Amino acid sequence: MKPAATAQNGKREYRKTGLFTLRHALMDLGSRAIDGRSSVGVALRRWKTDLIRDLGGEDSISTQQDTLIELAARSKIMLDSVDNWILSQPTLINARKKTIFAVVQQRQTIADGLTRTLKDLGLARRVKQQTLDDLLTDGNGAADEGAEGK
User: Fold this and answer.
1) Helix (H) or strand (E) holding 61
2) Which of 7, 24, 68, 120 has minimal CB crowding within 10 Å?
């Protein structure tokens, strides 16, 4: 059996997992590569919304944080994809070489990167700062009935 070709001889290295194809699509297109109508797209959008809410809401997110959230979303979709593939395998050990498959190490690298990104965003849940107008309205612009009489 021939070893996988390298970039030195001009041939691409063959990868079976699809991780590299997914990674390149996500790097080129971002979360636009995921159809928002699919179950994956809906779950990713919900995860990003929850993350933004945990960081204090849409109004308190800086441009830098928005970029980190997008990077975290990309990492999360790759990590979930790799986890699904790994869990569907009968074994993670290459019996002939007595080693773990490389995809397990790559999965850990993605997980570590996601952890670092989330730490950069902050692990503490932040409460959205409410203004006096927010307190006097019910969130739909209508005045709270209990606040009118005061």
Assistant:
1) none
2) 7
d(CA 93, CA 145): 64
pLDDT for residue 58: 85
Nearest partner of 83 among 54, 52, 114, 47, judged by Cα? 114
Number of domains the chain contains: 1
Per the domain annotation, does 90 fall within a domain? yes
Q: For residue 10, is it within any domain?
A: no
Give me the domain span that covers residue 80: 18-141
Residue 12 in domain: no
* 0.70 exceeded by pTM: no
Tell me the per-residue pLDDT of 112-125, one tens digit each, with 9 for 90 and over: 999 999 999 887 77
CA distance 7 to 28: 21
Looking at 55-96, list the stretches that DSSP marks H as alpha helix, in order from N- to C-terminal side: 63-87
End-to-end CA distance of the chain: 83
The answer to whether the beta carbons of residues 75 and 47 sit under 8 Å apart is: no
Residue 6 lies in a domain: no
Kindly state the helix (H) or strand (E) to which residue 132 belongs, with its residue range.
helix 132-136
